[in-house]
Amino acid sequence: QVQLVETGGGLVQAGGSLRLSCVASGRTFSTYHSGWFRQTPGKERELVAAIAWSNGVTYYADSVKGRFTTSRDSAKNTVYLQMNRLIPEDTAVYYCAFRERPLAPFFSVRSIDYDYWGQGTQVTVSS
Predict the structure, then answer these.
(1) What 3-state DSSP class applies to 76?
(2) For residue 54, what is the DSSP state?
(3) d(Cα 85, Cα 34) in Å, to the nearest integer?
(4) Rounded to whole angstroms, how far apart are CA atoms 89 and 105?
């Protein structure tokens, strides 16, 4: 089975940085898409970044573009979300998610299209 284990969340002051990691196991992920979603109570789950394992092409939501970077390390089966210049609005639970059969080259922003999910990690940005 596919398992996704997230680490790296925490508390940081505005302007600071965090790096989230998502270690995947159980499959070969060379054709997958990985997404980073965030969830705040009362709001819809939002895709903030995604990456295609095949070629490294990325997607970013406008709200994080220029501040967040997602990458993958194929040798480690790990996806990263580097978050810089954090602002309080970034506070959320962040989830990594994998889409097994993406409609490449398109990145889905819909949670329903992703098949496997990490447990979530809390990111809190203080003002």
Answers:
(1) helix
(2) T
(3) 23
(4) 29
Query: What is the spatial distance between Cα 109 and Cα 49, in angstroms, rounded to a whole number?
Result: 9
The DSSP secondary-structure symbol of 51 reads E
User: Two tokens at 68?
Assistant: 């967040």
Tokens found for residue 11: 């508390």
Q: Which residue has the tokens 């990458």?
A: 71
| 58 vs 116: CA distance, rounded Å | 19
Alpha carbons 109 and 68: distance in angstroms, whole number: 16
Half-sphere exposure of 52 (CA within 13 A, CB side): 15
How far is the C-alpha of 37 from the C-alpha of 45, rounded, in Å? 6
Beta strands in 1-127 (DSSP E): 3-7, 10-13, 18-25, 33-39, 46-52, 58-60, 68-73, 78-83, 92-99, 116-117, 121-126
pLDDT in tens, 48-102: 999 999 999 999 999 999 999 999 999 999 999 999 999 999 999 999 999 999 9
